[in-house]
Amino acid sequence: MPANRSLLRGGIAALAALPLLALAACGYGSEAKDDTSSQKIASGAKKIDGLDSVKIGYFGNLTHATALVGVQKGFFQKSLGGTQAKYQIFNAGPSEIEALNSGAIDIGWIGPSPAINGYTKSDGKSLRIIGGSASGGVKLVVDPKKIKSLKDVKGKKIATPQLGNTQDVAFLNWVAEQGWKVDPESGKGDVSVVRTDNKVTPDAFKSGSIDGAWVPEPTASKLVAEGGKVLLDESSLWPDKKFVITNIIVSQKFLTEHPKAVEAVLKASVDTNKWINANPDEAKTAANKQLEADSGKALPANVLDPAWKSIQVTDDPLASTLNTEAQHAVKSGLLKDPKLDGIYDLTLLNKVLKDEGESTVDDAGLGAK
Question: Which conformational region is residue 159 in: left (phi greater than 0), alpha (psi within -120 to 50 degrees), or beta?
Fold first, then answer.
């Protein structure tokens, strides 16, 4: 099975956010939640690199399906042997980047926007993207009574999660391609772009204060459950219907000092994705169970099922799409041309893929030298 193949069908999403603006969260809020639970280490298991633990961060979102399932099914602990896998759950990119920079976590699942922001703000010294995790799961959902076709979007109020975040940039780029004009910072123009936190977007949609939203899952499916209609799946705008929404990052210090531990986590990620592909229904249940453990609330079936179908797990970071989306941000006027050379180091991922007989992946010329 090729490394980027998946039985989770659907769209894609994601992208480059701006170093010069407040970075948008990929999740719901800015607080990090510590997961103090620990999975049992097998008796006699040896520590990797002499480490007592490896600290892993991720969001409690379906777009972090690899992390959710990997934690729930014990793939990370199995791969790390006698080294304890410890987890921290985040609601936003900035707090995860801060945790990585401070050493509170070693490795994290995160969207491309905060990864780019963290990399560029540190002058390329803080992190590397070491693998992919997911594409898909972003949609334009509208009130079908107010918007019946794409041309009807003009003049309407459309929500995005936050100024300059992945979906905001994607929507601004799409608006520009329609020949419409919007001031990127104020959101005013031929379309009113209303920056609204994902956690309140469903209520805003229900009340009629917005006419639609360009949002990731599961928010998109929550809007559909409130009577919305999917007018556009962002996957349809991309070659092969793929572009990255979740990456794996590591601090450069940890990568240099503990490559065996990093390789073990990447092996667990690859193994998890294989298991998800082979057991999509069981994987969906596992992801939702971990969501409930992390947030206290599982997703209902009418939200979980369509959201899960639109997300595609992948080992491939889809590096070329990150560069394209960075240019979308530049064109929108929200980002100065970033220097992304060296943001990727896929050496260990490709070693794992090769060892398991999988196809290796490409860094689109943005790899560490």
Answer: beta
Torsion angle of the four alpha carbons 15, 310, 270, 34, in this order, in degrees rounded to the nearest 10: 70
Please give the radius of gyration of the chain, using alpha carbons only, rounded to the nearest integer.
19
Amino acid occupying residue 199:
K
Q: What is the pLDDT of residues 12-70, one digit of tens each?
A: 333 333 333 333 333 333 345 555 445 677 767 899 989 999 999 999 889 999 999 99
Q: Which residues contact 249 (CB under 8 A, 6 or more apart)?
A: 100, 107, 108, 110, 115, 118, 127, 128, 129, 130
* Closest by Cα among 312, 339, 345, 342 to 326: 339
Cα–Cα distance list, 22 to 9, 92, 185 (Å): 32, 12, 11
Which positions ≥6 away from 176 have C-beta within 8 Å? Answer: 182, 331, 332
Supply angle C-alpha 13, 14, 16, rounded to 5: 155
DSSP letter, residue 332? H
Nearest 5 degrees, angle CA 2-CA 134-CA 351?
45
CA distances to 14, 132, 258, 301 from 363, in Å: 17, 11, 22, 37
Pairing of strands 53-59, 84-90: parallel
Phi and psi, residue 88, nearest 5°: -135, 130
Q: Answer left, alpha or beta for residue 254, where phi above 0 means left and psi between -120 and 50 means alpha.
A: alpha
202-253 per-position pLDDT tens digit:
999 999 999 999 998 999 999 999 999 999 999 999 989 998 999 999 999 9
> Which residue is listed with tokens 């780029």?
173
Going by the DSSP 8-state scheme, the letter that residue 235 receives in this structure is G
Q: What is the DSSP string of 145-168?
A: TT--SGGGGTTSEEEESSTTSHHH
User: What rounded mean pLDDT belongs to the chain?
Assistant: 88
Tokens in use for 145? Answer: 């009574």
Question: Is-cis flag, bond preceding 218, omega within 30?
Answer: yes
Cβ distance 336 to 320 under 8 Å?
A: no
> Is residue 349 within 8 Å of 361, Cβ to Cβ?
yes
DSSP code for 26: S
